[in-house]
């Protein structure tokens, strides 16, 4: 009961934040709505028992990546969005296509309701840091090292692209 | 303990902690003014009340009665949201911090921690307490970044950019300096880390009578943590973003009365959070020698007194440094964070992990 | 007991909203933020399925290997890391484009158009 109420509250906050991201004209308001979406997603991860991932979502996504977005919006002093005609094709094919895709996915999920089962917030030790670390540093060691090289490349790329000419 | 009791007890604890912390913040301003004054060979506030003890009350009344200006071309929503966000994030960290073991009232064991759930099997704590405090600090950057930008003024924008860049740079050093503690204790739960600091250090069977505090093996990490904490809370020697001679008060230039007071309170609350975290992780939290010659009431609250004494020692060091050192220039500040503290923290992690692996 | 399909439907809704933002908005930073929204929706579905596989632990795939629910969490960790790297480089590109074209509207960045 409590679980359902909590999920509905956080799910509504999520969807409201995402809709606000689309509706707002100024990019800073969109950025802050995205932070709200990420925070409520972190809470939904807690409902699913993923405590480490929830903390990482707040620290990395909401606390670092979105701060980067807010910095860029502040620095470029982006004003409100102007109305300009976009591609007609995107509107004609894109919007109905996405609606169809969304309804299809939703219908498939709800159809398989019985096989998917339910989620319960029992006190398990699922999603603790130790098992994740064990997986990360034993089975997934190669992707981990490759991702660290990827980050290094991204840092170098960002510095080079951001430099002024001369 | 069922959910309803937990919520009622948690609300009572929240009210108590917020009240105590805000009063502590108010009196820390007085302590700071008196101490800095003594360092500079003058009296501090002495007029209002005996020894100036009612000065925070006068300050509070002043803040409430001042005119609340909202300049013309600000982004109203963000302008009003930023100080609230800064203050809220500073207060959220106190929900995780354990202040002591537990109190037994009417058969219920109530742990002295807002998010602690007392039970028959001891006090259960959040497994990722340390990460949540780091997360609260990360979100606190938004308060400052948005405050400067929404004020629609060049001084504010520059000050907030500098302040937020400084904060995110030193967050790295702060987090990495705590990894050494995690390696030694094997857990991110704050209560667990304090519990492991309760004995004394045994070197090969020989009992040195030093308490098992993590400052002894991790003194480098403590040094890094202290520097990063000064930079995170925007205090001297890292307070360029709010220095009056540089930036006309930086990101809170355009703020007046209660909103300015909220930024002020957020800064001092951050100092308290950092101090509490340092006592929990490096100085053994509420552990201290049991003094049997005290009356039983004092003995019961002795852990709380030890905790408060250690946190006050930290605040004292903060204020002492403020009165003594000049401030860094901005490029010196960033170079110090990235080129000195970060490699030193990584070296500390490498050495600690070698020693832990060698001993196991 | 919340049915797992609710979490997956929420993930689908967020993904569709992200695609809408990507198609309909004209500001380049908002388009980038819609991409981040899509990535977050996919993360939610990974965590939901990680919970499912943990609840049905011990099941084996057809090839005989056992399924570990926590690999969903590890994958989300990798998605976050890659999203961070992508955000850094993407924003650097946006800053470079802004310096030359002086606009953030994608319709104005069309010098190659015939």
Protein model, in words:
- The complex is a heterotrimer of chains A (166), B (360) and C (114).
- With 166 residues, chain A is mainly alpha-helical.
- Chain A is built from 7 helices and 1 strand; from the N terminus they run αααααβαα.
- Chain A folds into 2 domains: 2-79 and 89-123, NADH-ubiquinone/plastoquinone oxidoreductase chain 6, subunit NuoJ (Four Helix Bundle (Hemerythrin (Met), subunit A), Up-down Bundle); 128-166.
- The mean pLDDT of chain A is 88.
- In chain B, helix 9 packs across helix 11 (302-324).
- Chain B is mainly alpha-helical.
- Chain B has 12 helices and 4 strands; from the N terminus they run H-H-H-E-E-H-H-H-E-E-H-H-H-H-H-H.
- Chain C has 114 residues and is mainly alpha-helical.
- Chain C has one domain (4-108): Orthogonal Bundle (Helix Hairpins).
- The longest helix of chain C is centred in the C-terminal third of the chain and has 31 residues, at 71-101.
- Chain C starts with a strand and ends in a 13-residue tail after the last helix.
- The mean pLDDT of chain C is 88.
- Chains A and C meet through helix 1, helix 2, helix 3, helix 4 and strand 1 of A and strand 1, helix 1, helix 2 and helix 3 of C.
- Strand 1 (118-119) of chain A pairs antiparallel with strand 1 (2-3) of chain C, so a sheet runs across the interface.
């Amino acid at each position: 009961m409590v679980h359902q109420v909590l999920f509905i509250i956080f799910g509504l906050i999520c969807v409201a934040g995402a809709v606000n991201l689309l509706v707002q004209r100024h990019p800073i308001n969109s950025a802050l709505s995205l932070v709200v979406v990420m925070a409520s997603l972190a809470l939904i991860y807690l409902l699913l028992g993923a405590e480490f991932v929830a903390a990482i979502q707040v620290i990395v996504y909401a606390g670092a990546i979105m701060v980067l977005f807010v910095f860029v919006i502040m620095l470029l002093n982006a004003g409100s969005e102007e109305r300009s005609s976009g591609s007609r094709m995107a509107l004609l094919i894109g919007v109905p296509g996405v609606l169809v895709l969304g309804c299809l996915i939703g219908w498939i999920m709800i159809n398989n309701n019985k096989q998917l089962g339910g989620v319960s917030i029992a006190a398990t030790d699922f999603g603790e840091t130790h098992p994740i670390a064990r997986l990360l540093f034993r089975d997934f060691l190669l992707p981990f090292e490759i991702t660290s090289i990827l980050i290094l490349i991204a840092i170098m790329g960002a510095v080079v692209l951001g430099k002024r000419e001369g | 303990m069922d959910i309803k009791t937990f919520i009622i007890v948690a609300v009572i604890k929240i009210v108590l902690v917020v009240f105590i912390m805000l009063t502590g913040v108010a009196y820390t301003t007085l302590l700071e003014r008196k101490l800095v004054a003594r360092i500079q060979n003058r009296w501090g506030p002495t007029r209002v009340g005996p020894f100036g003890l009612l000065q925070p009350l006068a300050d509070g009344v002043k803040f409430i009665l001042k005119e609340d200006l909202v300049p013309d071309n600000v982004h109203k929503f963000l302008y009003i949201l930023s100080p609230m966000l800064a203050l809220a994030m500073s207060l959220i960290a106190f929900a995780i911090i354990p202040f002591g073991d537990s109190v037994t009232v009417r058969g219920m064991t109530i742990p002295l921690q807002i998010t602690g759930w007392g039970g028959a099997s001891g006090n259960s704590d959040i497994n990722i307490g340390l990460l949540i405090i780091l997360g609260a600090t990360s979100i606190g950057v938004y308060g400052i970044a948005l405050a400067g930008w929404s004020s629609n003024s060049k001084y504010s924008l520059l000050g907030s950019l500098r302040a937020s860049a400084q904060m995110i740079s030193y967050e790295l050093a702060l987090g990495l300096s705590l990894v050494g503690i995690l390696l030694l204790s094997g857990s991110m739960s704050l209560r667990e880390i304090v519990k492991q600091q309760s004995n004394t250090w045994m070197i090969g069977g020989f009992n040195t009578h030093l308490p098992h505090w993590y400052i002894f093996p991790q003194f480098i990490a403590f040094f890094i943590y202290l520097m990063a904490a000064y930079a995170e809370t925007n205090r001297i020697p890292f307070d360029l973003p709010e220095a009056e001679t540089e930036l006309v008060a930086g990101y809170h230039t355009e703020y007046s009365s209660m909103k300015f007071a909220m930024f002020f309170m957020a800064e001092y609350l951050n100092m308290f959070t950092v101090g509490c975290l340092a006592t929990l992780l490096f100085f053994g939290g509420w552990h201290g020698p049991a003094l049997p010659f005290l009356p039983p009431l004092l003995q019961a609250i002795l852990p709380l007194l030890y905790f408060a004494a250690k946190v006050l020692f930290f605040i004292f060091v903060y204020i002492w440094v403020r009165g003594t050192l000049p401030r860094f220039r901005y490029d010196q500040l960033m170079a110090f964070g990235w080129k000195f503290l970060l490699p030193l923290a990584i070296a500390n992690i490498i050495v600690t992990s070698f020693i832990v692996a060698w001993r196991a | 007991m919340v049915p797992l399909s609710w979490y997956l439907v929420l993930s689908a809704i967020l993904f569709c909203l992200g695609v809408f933002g990507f198609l309909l908005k004209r500001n380049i930073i908002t388009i980038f933020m819609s991409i981040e929204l899509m990535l977050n929706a996919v993360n939610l579905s990974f965590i939901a399925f990680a919970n499912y596989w943990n609840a049905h632990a011990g099941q084996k795939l057809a090839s005989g290997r056992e399924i570990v629910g926590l690999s969903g969490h590890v994958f989300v960790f990798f998605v976050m890391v890659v999203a961070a790297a992508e955000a850094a480089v993407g924003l650097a590109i946006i800053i470079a484009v802004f310096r030359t074209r002086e606009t953030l509207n994608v319709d104005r960045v069309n010098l190659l158009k015939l």
